[in-house]
Amino acid sequence: MIEKAIGILKSAKSLFVLTGAGISAESGIPTFRGADGLWKNYSATDLATPEAFKKDPALVWEWYHWRQNIISKADPNPAHYAVVDLEKKLERFLLLTQNVDNLHQRAGSKNVLEIHGNIFRTRCLICGEIADYQKPSEPANSTLPKCTCGGSLRPDVVWFGEAIPQDIWQNSLDFLSRADAALICGTSGIVWPAAAIPEIAKRGNTKTIEINLEPTAVSSIVDVSIQGKAGEILPKIVAALG
Ligand code: BV8
Ligand code: ZN
Questions:
Q1: Under CATH, domain 30-73+117-157 is a member of which superfamily?
Q2: Which of 66, 192, 226, 229 to mutate to test the pocket of ligand 1 (most atoms within 8 A of CB)?
Q3: What is the crossing angle of helices 2-11 and 230-241, to 10°?
Q4: Domain 1-28+76-116+164-242: which CATH number of 3.40.50.1220, 3.40.50.12280, 3.40.640.10, 3.40.50.2030
Q5: What's the gap between Cα 111 and its chain centre?
Q6: Residue 86 class from Cβ within 10 Å (0-12 exposed, 13-18 middle, 19+ buried)?
Q7: Could you tell me if the CB of 38 is within 6 A of ligand 1?
Q8: Beta strand pairing status for 153-157 and 117-124?
Q9: Whole-angstrom Cα distance, residue 183 to residue 9?
């Protein structure tokens, strides 16, 4: 299987990469739906929704502070670095990540489209200002982060029921419609509209490669489905591309 993937990538001039929580798993970041999944003790509807934030902003911020903490202690893993190498090797390259953990950027990826936002940015509910998250001096869970305008700040991520950034989606579809290959790495293919990417790629004449620990909803439609750890498989593929 890996040889087939290498063959596709060797002849590709343009590559679309979609990543999910699985590419950060080997950095120690819990995935959403795995055994140690983030949703295990909280369900997505409890926390990653505008209603949850309206109802109990302190609880939602507590969850995000907890995740920021885990992520800031984590480092990019070989899978993130392999994606950086792919960006350097391919003439035309686009990385669309569902992850909000900033690890692709920390690994050195230049052009990262974040379909679900970024956990280290905040957005003001009043003036809409987007800013890098400033850890409050006093203990985080006592006060809620406030904007300079006095408005409440929320994490600059896309919650369930919220529209994804239209420009990012449009750019992704435009690139995908002309891509020779698409690499789908570390996503369960459950969350929409990102989950539609493999199907859209298939309908075009884009060759699709999946790397995942286990079979997923998209394994039956991709051209090559490789089972294994992204941190092991991706560096092997990149090394074979020379
Ligand atoms: C929208 C940001 C409309 C926040 C996230 C019923 C049917 C279909 C759709 C829906 C439905 N009901 C509701 C919907 C829509 C909903 C949706 O898709 N729900 C799902 C649950 C069914 N989608 C939305 O609401 C989206 N918005 O539709 O808006 C709209 C339109 C116009 C105007 C107004 C509204 C918004 C969705 C965005 C939600 N935000 N995150 C935060 O992070 O706090 S989603 C969240 O899940 C993360 O971003 C995460 O990235 C994403 C997807 O999960 P994965 O990345 O795939 O992670 P997961 O744990 O699931 O899988 C990990 C995989 O890695 C596994 O397969 C595992 O095997 C693999 N793996 C593990 N280790 C490794 C590995 N692979 C390789 N190597 C390893 N080492
Ligand atoms: Zn403001």
A1: SIR2/SIRT2 'Small Domain' (3.30.1600.10)
A2: 192
A3: 50
A4: 3.40.50.1220
A5: 13
A6: buried
A7: no
A8: antiparallel
A9: 9
How far apart CA 60 and CA 65 sit, in angstroms, is 9
Stretch 108-114: mean pLDDT: 96
Q: Take atom 44 of ligand 1 and give the residue whose Cα is closest.
A: 48
Give me ligand 2 centre to Cα 44, in Å. Answer: 27
The span from the CA of 57 to the CA of 153, in Å, is 10
Q: Is the CB of 186 under 6 A from ligand 1?
A: yes
CB 38 within 8 A of CB 68: no
Residue 218 to residue 199: CA distance in whole angstroms: 8
- Report pLDDT digits (tens) over 132-178: 997 765 555 457 999 999 999 999 999 999 999 999 999 999 999 99
For the record, the structure tokens of 78 come out as 């070989």
Residue 44 has pLDDT above 80, yes or no: no
What amino acid occupies position 187? T
Q: Residue written as tokens 């560096």?
A: 235
- For the segment 127-144, what is each residue's pLDDT rounded down to a tens digit? 999 999 977 655 554 579
Q: Which of 218, 214, 213 is nearest to 231 (CA)?
A: 213
Q: Are 74 and 98 in contact (CB under 8 A)?
A: no
Question: What value does the CA radius of gyration of the chain take, rounded to a whole number of Å?
Answer: 18
Query: How do the domains of the chain map onto residue ranges?
Result: 1-28+76-116+164-242, 30-73+117-157
225 Cβ contact list (under 8 Å, min separation 6): 1, 209, 210, 212, 215, 219
